[in-house]
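Why does this matter for the project? Reviewers at the last site visit asked to see concrete outputs rather than summary tables. In response, this paragraph embeds two records directly. Each consists of the residue sequence and, immediately after it, the corresponding structure tokens. Nothing has been edited or filtered.
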Amino acid sequence: MVVVAVVVVFLLVGHSSPSKSGTSSSANPLAPASVLNAVTGVSPTVSSAIGAGGVTDPLQPLSGSPAQLTGPNGHPELFYLGAEYCPYCAAERWSVVIALSRFGKFSNLHITTSDSNPDDIPNTHTFTFLGSSYSSQYLDFAPIESEDRSGNPLQTPTAAQQALINAYDTSPYSSTTGGIPFQDLANRYILSGSGTNPEILQGMDWQQIADTLSSTQSQVAQEIIGNANWITAGICKVTGNQPGSVCNGAPISTLEAQIASS
């Protein structure tokens, strides 16, 4: 199993330029507006009713009091490491897009699928962060998609990002050294692997997955939104509960109180 999620949050304030993540492959079309609207506009009522959605807290506090990971504007940073071929990354991206859309806005977000390996949860429909932009008053997002769905190289982590991977994408935070998806939230929390099981997305296309997100009874919605709610609560931990419109209401404030301190 591929495990380890690295999340890096970057803060962009005011009208500063959005963060960019490389050049998107022409093989990956832009996400349809109907899919984006469903994912970035999850109803607060649905989110509150789902709560954790049966998902176990994925946020592991970093030990040793490392220096806070900050972006270019001195704000908390979320670093994400994944690959387009990876079905666990595919499942995790749905939750990441939901969570980050509560703090800012994605542009130029494309869709893709995981690889077609029949032994590895094939063709999981998802987004790719390659070529996307993200802007926020509260955080920066630094995504790396290391390989395409055929295993060809795409993006290479910077030296600083590789140092994070070497330090934290391993035991005790991950059962697999160098696993993906891997996320580092401000050097306060590590998210290793996916909080959403990609097997529940099998046989569903992008629109079908997006359409579940309005139903509190859907297992797909419960896992994707429940995982997104945990990620949101973690981000609120490192942004000082900003914005209050996101962090102070149900279910985020309740989940935040359950996250272990770093």
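We now turn to the second protein, recorded in exactly the same manner.
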Amino acid sequence: MGSGCALFSSRHAPWILVAVVLASLQISYAQDAPPPASTSGPASEEPAPLTTMFSHPDSPPWYVAGQINVISQGHPSFPALYSGRNSLQPKAEWRTSEVLTLFTGLQLGPQTEILVDVESAGGRGISDALGLAGFTNLDVVRNPDLGRSPYLARAMIHHVIALSSDSQEAQRGPLALATRLPARRFELRAGKFSMADFFDLNNAGSDSHLQFMNWTVDNNGAYDYAADTRGYTFGVLLDFEDHNWGVRFAESLMPTVANGQHLQWNLRRARAENLELDLYPKLVADRPSALRLLAFVNHANMGAYGDAIADFRAHRTTLPDITAHPLDIAVKYGFGLNLEQALTAQLRLFGRWGWNEGQHESYAYTEVDQTWEFGGDYRGTRWGRSLDKAGAVLVSNGISRVHQQYLGLGGRGFLLGDGALDYGRETIEEGYYNLHLWRGLYAGFDLQHVNNPGYNRARGPVVVPAIRIHLDL
């Protein structure tokens, strides 16, 4: 295993010290607070077990928390008839990634709060995150040269406008601090955030820290959502929520180049619109259900695969090159469907479908033009481990015909390019078991089997085991 497995190494000490000190302030606040008034009636139920290292009371106007996630992952050697610069390497390898996040928030009033998060992402992914559309570790930054220096991940203002007098319980966390919200409301957010914080969410398949690890399992692979290399953007988000449905819209910034670290602030040159409708029907008795319908439109200086192929055949480029074009503000759009259904108190099923037009280059997330997935998770209550969870999923990714031709002629995207292509859908099976050890400490065991890595039947299959240590402070 790589050096990243040293969870509490010296370079992490300042982060951990800050989180521990600030969290201890919350503990002190909770201990100094007056006890709740006594109430008549039967004794209350046993309190829920603590799932963070430190308690986080709901009463302070401020919020401080943290997390550390370490994933060690690798693969044995696998067959490959040929490899290119952007290929998953066929030789055995093992890599470790680390993500540390400090979450902070401050309530300015009953309806307004400021949320600021600082993060560090270090280590590397197998083959530096190249060669797979459905890459096996969502924590990996697609440019390892950025290093592990701390950066501002989120900085947003969040304002709630009540549209009804009745309210409902809400869970306090890094993205919202109120413990009760109006049942009918508008929410406004502005600042820096990740589109995946609010769009295409799925309770069974959106969290690489406690659930699945694959990029195209935790997110819709065909959703080329606006983001810099680390996965964040600046934008404005409007969200209307009612009792059993909701709709949200966001306008956000796109990167200046595909997979770029810098964002384009001139909205005439680049921007992204995102729209999602959430429905919560009652399909199976009283078990929770969710149906989410997603649409997105990206405007950016994107190349077209057909143009890159035409330039190559006209001998204007030595290989098809999606970046070799003049400034051209193109449009890329797509749609997504997201489902989840609880069948019992322990068992949930989920699925996704996604499609984008596939004529313009994959720009911000990954190289997928069509995708579908189906899976589920199961809570370990039956064997006395109610905080343990096991999951299994099948995801199949594809690309458009012109995208296939581009890669087959030797073209490269920002993730893929073996030098040739014997096309086949990239299909991945993933299973995990997440073990709750104590308070906020978890250990996860994950196994992925990838067929046709990078859509290439001349390479693979490859098996990718992983071990994960997660700490919620």
